[in-house]
Amino acid sequence: MANVDRRWLPPTLIAGAGVASLVAQKRLPPTFRLDLDGLFPWSTPPSDPGPRWIALWLMPALALLLWIGFRLAPTATGQRLGRRLFRSAPDEVTAPAQFDRFGKTYEMIVLAIVLLILGFQAGFLAAAFHANAAAARMLLLVFGGSLVLLGNVMPRLRPNWVAGLRTQRLLADPQQWRRANRTFGTAIFASGIVTMLAAIAAPRYGLLVGIGGLLVSCLMGLTTGRSRGRGAPRAHTAAL
After folding, report:
1. Number of domains in the chain
2. What's the pLDDT score for residue 232?
3. What is the Cα–Cα distance from 170 to 238, expressed in whole angstroms?
4. Is the CA virtual torsion 48, 115, 59, 16 positive or negative?
5. Range(s) of the domain holding residue 138
6. Is residue 39 part of a domain?
7. pLDDT of residue 226
8. What is the pTM assigned to this prediction?
């Protein structure tokens, strides 16, 4: 698959986030109120007091679990799980060898997902220290940047059970897969650009813009994928 440096960059970033949490732990009280005011057009009151480990360790732990899952996907264990989720998909879609055909693209998607989660971690830490304006812009810039990165590589994906828009129909038809994920990638690339612009000009609307753009991108991709092949069976749908 991808070279060693790219493959191991996500866990390196996760380890760096863990170090940052250790440093921040000394400055945070045992409980804190998370204030996310500034992320939405409406006023958001601080949360009830909660344990500091939520801000310190929840997102790094989630990023680590997802990275492990991505690493297991191109293995025999992942193949068995893929066959259970997409029973009618062609065998090669879940085969470990399939991932070798788009290894660099797969590693970029893994990196984008890890960066997105760690961006939320950075935003949570900034909010825990009451730097709300910095937290909002940081979170939105990372969110938008991750969408741009995903959109840039999504059209290069081959049919697989882990990444991209995935339905039984798309997995069974490589042409529909390419058409759907090309549209999906272009749309989320544009959504990422708009989200980053909103982070600078109107951060209170940025999160809604990013989430809305991601949902619209999924709908556009699925609609494009369904435009030919209306007689196919009902699809089991997933998206990354």
Report:
1. 1
2. 45
3. 11
4. negative
5. 4-29+48-226
6. no
7. 74
8. 0.84
